[in-house]
């Protein structure tokens, strides 16, 4: 037996839910419509009986018979009364052909006039006893009758109103009756047409939904392949409305990937750094000792070169270890401007050695909860990256501003710029565009930013320079503990 696939199951669930909703709403609307229809019909019946009472000729029904001479039977009298009252009945304007009306005479115990189209069988061919119960009232009222004689056995709603003579005596009733079976049939027919139209629209929606689902499934498969290849930044879905969602997933995936890389590097650093540094320290000391001996004077430059390379390797291991350290940060309420002023002499000295200059523009910003040493390292790494990007010298701008609930730090250089395809790779350990770089400096910056619950974004144009923008949330003292917890738990070995 063939299994039902996911799309078919989803379609069946949608159809079931929509049908249940349609039936519930339709029954509710049918009930409301029927109530409104009955209220409207009741008003029509009252209007018709009022009109008949006002337009009836003066005198009793017996006076009408007396004016036309004696008759040999009651049936002949009823026929004469019906004939005389037809002009009154024909002058009634009715909204539909499901309403009948006329007069009932107590003296004759029968309906004596019926409209809008006179039905002789009702006037002459029925038993008069049921009418006595229906019209045995001295006040106007509504009566619900099953198997109504007026409508040849159909259910009906009847409004009766007493008719009096010139002396105020009740001589009969004016009545108006509506065929309730016809009303209900019309309502069900209208409901069935509505259900048919809605069901057709449901089928159309299912076809459209199925097409959209297939496109979405195809896009998700392509997007998954792009994730594996690391090329999701410019992915566009066939459904343009879905593209922002996929872009958000791509951004979050990239962040998770970057953090995972840092975790791996941290684990590697913690495991091998000390084992490597110890023999390197021994080798460096031995090279320095041997380089100072007279018999190796001619090899002095080679010894110095080996010592320099060992020092360079030691520097890489030091940066490597900084990714692995999980020391708790010392958060305190600091003003970012004060930290920049403290480190300014150091970065200015670095800039002068590279034939460059530093320009700072500090705005009015509120205090933040920061780890001062980490922020020092963050600014120092970014400024040195900017200086390395300007081999012929230039200017670096450091700005601080406040934007709504965020404090923004931006560091801009006027260097070579970074190609767009390389921006997403920045922060990956050991990925660098420098000839002698390690790719660990920016990875450390990302780690510091993350532990401060901030965000780091990079914008660059080749030949124009690069802007590093860090956004710090303005936090209350109640949230300080959560930041500390985040900083301690970040990059712990798995």
List keywords for this structure.
3 domains; Heat Shock Protein 90; 54% helix; 494 residues; 5-stranded antiparallel β-sheet; 13 helices; two-component regulatory system; 18% strand; phosphoprotein; disordered C terminus; transmembrane helix; histidine kinase; 5-stranded mixed β-sheet; alpha+beta; 12 strands; HisK_dim/P_dom; Beta-Lactamase
* Span of the ends, CA to CA: 46 Å
User: Roughly what percent helix?
Assistant: 40-55%
Largest sheet, order of strands side by side?
2-1-5-4-3
**What's the level 1 CATH class of the largest domain?**
Alpha Beta
Topology:
Blueprint (H helix, E strand, L loop, with lengths): L5 H50 L5 H6 L7 H17 L8 E7 L4 E6 L4 H5 L4 H6 L6 E8 L5 E11 L5 E10 H50 L13 H49 L8 H25 L6 E4 L1 H18 L3 E6 L5 E4 H17 L6 E9 L2 E8 L6 H4 L17 H11 L3 E7 L3 E9 L6 H10 L5
Parallel strand pairs: 7-9
Antiparallel strand pairs: 1-2, 1-5, 3-4, 4-5, 6-8, 9-10, 10-12, 11-12
Helix pairs in contact: 1-6, 7-8, 9-10, 10-12
């Amino acid at each position: 037996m063939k299994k039902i696939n996911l799309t078919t199951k989803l379609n069946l669930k949608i159809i079931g839910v929509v049908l249940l909703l349609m039936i519930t709403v339709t029954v509710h609307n049918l009930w409301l419509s029927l109530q409104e229809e009955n209220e409207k019909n009741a008003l029509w019946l009252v209007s018709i009986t009022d009109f008949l009472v006002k337009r009836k000729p003066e005198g009793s029904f017996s006076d009408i018979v007396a004016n036309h001479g004696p008759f040999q039977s009651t049936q002949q009298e009823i026929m004469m009364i019906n004939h005389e009252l037809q002009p009154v009945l024909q002058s009634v304007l009715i909204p539909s052909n499901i309403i009948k009306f006329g007069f009932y005479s107590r003296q004759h115990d029968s309906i004596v006039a019926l409209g809008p189209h006179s039905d002789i069988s009702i006037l002459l061919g029925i038993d008069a006893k049921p009418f006595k119960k229906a019209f045995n009232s001295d006040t106007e009222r509504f009566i619900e009758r099953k198997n109504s004689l007026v409508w040849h056995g159909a259910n009906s709603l009847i409004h009766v109103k007493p008719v009096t003579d010139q002396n105020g005596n009740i001589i009969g009733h004016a009545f108006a009756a509506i065929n309730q079976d016809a009303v209900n049939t019309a309502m069900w027919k209208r409901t069935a047409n509505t259900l048919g139209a809605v069901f057709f629209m449901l089928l159309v929606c299912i076809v459209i939904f199925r097409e959209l689902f297939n496109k979405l499934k195809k896009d998700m498969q392509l997007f998954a392949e792009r994730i594996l290849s690391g090329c999701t930044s410019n992915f566009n879905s066939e459904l343009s409305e879905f593209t922002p969602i996929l872009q958000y997933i791509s951004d979050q995936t990239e962040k998770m990937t970057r953090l995972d890389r840092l975790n791996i590097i941290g684990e590697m650093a913690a495991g091998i750094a000390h084992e490597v540094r110890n023999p390197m320290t021994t080798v460096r000391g031995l090279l320095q000792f041997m380089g100072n001996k007279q018999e190796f004077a001619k090899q002095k430059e080679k010894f110095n070169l080996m010592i320099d390379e060992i020092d360079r390797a030691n520097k890489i291991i030091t940066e490597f270890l900084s990714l692995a350290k999980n020391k708790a940060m010392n958060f305190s309420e600091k003003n970012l401007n004060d930290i920049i002023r403290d480190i300014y002499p150091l970065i200015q000295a670095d800039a002068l050695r590279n034939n460059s200059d530093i320009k700072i523009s500090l705005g009015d910003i509120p205090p933040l909860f920061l780890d001062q040493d980490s922020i020092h390292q963050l600014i120092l790494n970014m400024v040195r990256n900017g200086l390395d990007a300007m081999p012929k010298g230039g200017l670096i701008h450091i700005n601080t501003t406040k934007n709504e609930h965020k404090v923004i730090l931006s560091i801009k250089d006027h260097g070579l710029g970074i190609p767009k395809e390389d921006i997403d790779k920045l922060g990956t350990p050991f990925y660098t565009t420098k000839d002698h770089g390690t790719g660990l400096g920016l990875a450390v910056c990302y780690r510091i930013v993350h532990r401060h619950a901030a965000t780091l974004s990079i914008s660059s144009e080749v030949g124009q320079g690069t802007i590093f923008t860090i956004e710090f949330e303005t936090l209350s003292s109640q949230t300080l503990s959560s930041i500390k917890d985040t900083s301690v738990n970040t990059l712990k070995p798995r």
